[in-house]
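Quiz preparation item.
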């Protein structure tokens, strides 16, 4: 059965609705008010009505739990990138953002799996050192288009650049939430990926403004 992530998979726990079913367990964390279905599986369970959600390993936790908060930050980042996509990104930049959105589903799924077992069932949920290297290559290529950075940049400019600056700030918040879990509690490549991603989003914002000849406001 194909693993299909429910939207609350990223919003609150990044559990995969049907992955849990493979082991005789439905990892369900769908938003309480939804009545949508994926095939024959409903997205709402009522668990959230009690202020709880379920992690990938089946453990019920409070929605205020730090791991759930980290998943929520990553989902917010993904949504912010979705908004950036509709502001008029150049095709090459849009391709990068789209790939990053896919990666963020992997980040969320991993965060929702305290037992570090999800990669054994969903191959694409695992981030590796090569994914971090890919971000670094994008950063280096895009940065070569830009004038040297001489001071702090005030976020803003063209709507596309401003949207990417906002995504960068959300990414930093997500990174802080992940670090709060303890660096030993998450894969090292995941933490490196999120750290490098904020740098990429900064460069993407600068490039978006530069290509539209919108001056950066220095501080």
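Solution:
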């Amino acid at each position: 059965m194909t693993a299909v992530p429910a939207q609350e998979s990223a919003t609150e726990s990044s559990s995969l609705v049907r992955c849990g079913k493979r082991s005789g367990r439905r990892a369900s964390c769908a938003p309480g008010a939804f009545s949508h279905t994926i095939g024959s599986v409903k997205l709402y369970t009522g668990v959230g009505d009690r202020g709880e959600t379920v992690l990938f390993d089946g453990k019920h936790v409070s929605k205020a739990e730090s791991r759930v908060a980290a998943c929520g930050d990553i989902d917010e980042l993904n949504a912010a990138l979705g908004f950036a996509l509709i502001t008029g990104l150049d095709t090459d930049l849009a391709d990068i953002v789209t790939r990053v959105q896919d990666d963020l589903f992997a980040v969320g799924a991993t965060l929702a799996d305290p037992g570090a077992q999800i990669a054994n069932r969903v191959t694409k949920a695992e981030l590796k050192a090569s994914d971090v290297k890919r971000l670094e290559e994008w950063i280096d290529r895009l940065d070569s288009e830009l004038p040297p950075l001489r001071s702090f940049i005030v976020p803003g400019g063209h709507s596309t650049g401003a949207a990417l600056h906002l995504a960068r700030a959300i990414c930093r918040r997500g990174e802080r939430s992940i670090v709060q879990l303890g660096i030993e509690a998450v894969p090292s490549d995941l933490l490196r990926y999120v750290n490098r991603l904020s740098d990429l989003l900064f460069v993407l914002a600068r490039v978006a403004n530069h290509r539209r000849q919108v001056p950066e406001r220095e501080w």
